[in-house]
Amino acid sequence: MQRPLQGLTRKNIMREVVAGITLLAISVPLNIGYAQIAGLPATAGLYALIVPTIVYALMVSSRQVVASPDAAAAALVFSSLVGLGAAGENFAAMAAAQAILSGLMLAAFSFLKLGFLANFLSKPILIGFVGGLALEILVSQLAKMLGIRLDAAAEFFEKVAELFGALGSLNVFSLVISAASIGVLLIGRRLAPLIPWALVVLVAATAATVLWGLESKGVAVLGEVPAGPPQFALPMLDWSVWVALIPSALALTLVTVAEGLLVSRAYGEKHGYPVNPDQDLLAFGAANVAAGLSSSFAVGSSTSRSAAMDQAGSRTQVPSLVLAAGTLLLLLFGTALLAQIPSPAIGAVVAVAVFKLLGLMEFGDLWRQSRFEFAIGVVCFVGVLAFGPLGGLFLAFVLSLINLARRAANPATDVLQGSDDPQASLLDSAQPTTLTAPGVLVLRFAAPVFFANGTILADRITGSVHDAAGEVRALVLDAEAITDIDVTGAEALGGAKAWLAARGITLAYSRVRPELRQRLVHFGLMDPAQEYATNRAAVAALQVSPANTGDDVEETL
Questions:
Q1: How many whole angstroms separate alpha carbon 149 and alpha carbon 165?
Q2: Residue 506: is it exposed, middle or buried by C-beta count within 10 angstroms (0-12/13-18/19+)?
Q3: Does the pLDDT of residue 119 top 70, yes or no?
């Protein structure tokens, strides 16, 4: 495990502290907004910036990734808890319990080295999943910006209908604040990207609200924020509630693993420092447990804030520690400053932050690259809106497994082309009816042989013999790409071997991996079949004498 605060030197400490002040200015307004998305009080978002951030910063191997709740996770927390019927004080306790469960799962992933499981969340699934959550967030924030109250427990399409139906009752002052906030955010970031415009917007909007008494004119404000440090407690819930939270905690875990490790690796490669995936997963796990125990909710990697720190020149976790210290001071002495923040301004800050999460450009790239994977992304996107985050994620996950099985069940199978050059390797594909050499057919199967494609291999073997433009006396199976074979696949290959033997055709193997050789021997498929080190060796031996027992020819391709 790497020591804490790697990369910190006397020369860069002031730059890191300044970056931390910038991170504080970015994170406070965002976390207040994300807490509201999750259906939690503002303090839950601020508490996530203290103990969880310190724990993560001292444990992680990445020097730049910032850990914090993000918009997608907040939406997943809210949707999953509403789906379980959570309400009132029980809501906050369930959010905390969910974070603890996710933290324990992340720790288990670290110890058991199960990070590869997140690979099943392919890029199309992540794009669709996050995009669907982003659209759901945008609808709720749009209502906030217009001064319209929506039923928080309603489904997405019900919220859309309710929003359109209530447009006649929108609050003009809320609309003006929102429009001005969005304008400042978009134009300001283009003209001066280093300035924390979200903080500027909230300060200016709060001043305007107080100065002109906009609360009395129907503009909603954040309200009183309790002062004091985080409240530590173990959520007191029935065991059945903990069990019910497991699926949503697992979804949060998989998303954190997939995004967190990707961002960590990207920055490590960009700046040339090592990262340890297992250590990073453990850091995320500890941070989530700390979040649950300190009255907060699930944290993950914040891509936008990590990018901001990279742009500010930060190369250590010091900014995260500055963030934690600054947030604690705010909670101790400055909560009165937060009470008059207008909700439309918070909605505008969140809406601008999550708009890019819709993935419009990414969907365009998928459309150009693969229509099938584009369809998977769209199904996940629509599924999140129609069935909720877990339902959409499960549906897209099933589609990805079907796509995986479809690809594995139909691997490339080629008849290899012969050559008169004794030095040439026989690796090029030929027409399916072509013999590799007189009486010899070399067939390459490019996948492990298992239950989904065993019969495909057997059919290709028999079909190649039927279609060959000449008598086949030996068939050589090029096994270089076959990494494994299961019981069903072995049964299918054994049937093809018997079919060949009944017609007086020798079955031989070439380029067999040691592990596969053991499996073939175990299943009784290597005796009396012949094995050769290369395709050239197999053709040379079998051309000379079809009955040759085939001593291995030691040469390389």
A1: 11
A2: buried
A3: no
Tokens describing residue 440: 């010899």
In the structure encoding, which two tokens stand for residue 399, read together?
A: 């589609």
Burial class (CB in 10 A: 0-12, 13-18, 19+), 114: middle
Q: How confident is the model at residue 327 (pLDDT cuts 50, 70, 90)?
A: very high
CA atoms of 174 and 171, how far apart (whole Å): 5
Using the 8-state DSSP alphabet, how is residue 38 labeled? Answer: T
At 71-118, the pLDDT tens digits run: 888 988 998 898 887 766 789 999 999 999 999 999 999 999 877 766
Facing residues of 449 across strands?
A: 485
**What is the rounded CA–CA span in Å between residue 45 and residue 230?**
11
For the CA atoms of 105, 108, 109, 114, what is the dihedral angle to 10 degrees? -120
- CA distance readout (Å), 147 to 31, 74, 168: 21, 21, 11
Sole residue written with tokens 């850091």: 283
Give Cα 247 to chain centroid, integer Å.
16
Taking alpha carbons only, the member of 433, 437, 440, 434 closest to residue 419 is 437
**Residue in this structure with the two tokens 């997939």, named with its chain if needed:** 258
Q: What percent of the chain has pLDDT over 70?
A: 94
Find, among 153, 134, 354, 119, the residue nearest to 258 by Cα.
119
Query: Which amino acid, one-letter code, is at 367?
Result: W
Given the DSSP bridges, would you call strands 300-302 and 413-415 parallel, antiparallel or unpaired? unpaired
CA distance 217 to 467: 83
Give 4 or 209, the one with higher predicted confidence.
209
Q: Compute the Cα dihedral for 384, 253, 397, 62 and give only its sign.
A: positive
d(C-alpha 358, C-alpha 446), whole Å: 37
Instruction: Spell out a b/e string for 437-462, using b for 16 or more CB atoms within 10 Å of the CB, else e.
Output: bebbbbbbbebbbbebbbbbbbebbb
Q: The dihedral of CA 35, 41, 46, 50: what is its sign?
A: negative
Phi first, then psi: give them for residue 429, nearest 5 degrees.
-80, 155
What whole-number distance in Å separates Cα of residue 486 and Cα of residue 451? 7
Written as six digits, the tokens of 121 are 């969340």
Please report where in the chains the tokens 């031989």 appear, as a residue.
508
Q: What is the pLDDT of residue 515?
A: 92
Instruction: Tell me the three state secondary structure of residue 548.
Output: coil
Give the pLDDT confidence of 167-189 residue by residue, as tens digits: 999 999 999 999 999 999 999 98
Q: Which of 170, 126, 204 is nearest to 397 (CA)?
A: 126
Task: Quote the pLDDT of residue 316.
Answer: 93
- Using alpha carbons only, what angle is made at residue 384 by residues 381 and 389, rounded to the nearest 5 degrees? 135
Bridge partners of 478?
Answer: 444, 510
pLDDT-based confidence at residue 549 (cuts at 50, 70, 90): very low
Residue 357 pLDDT exceeds 90:
no
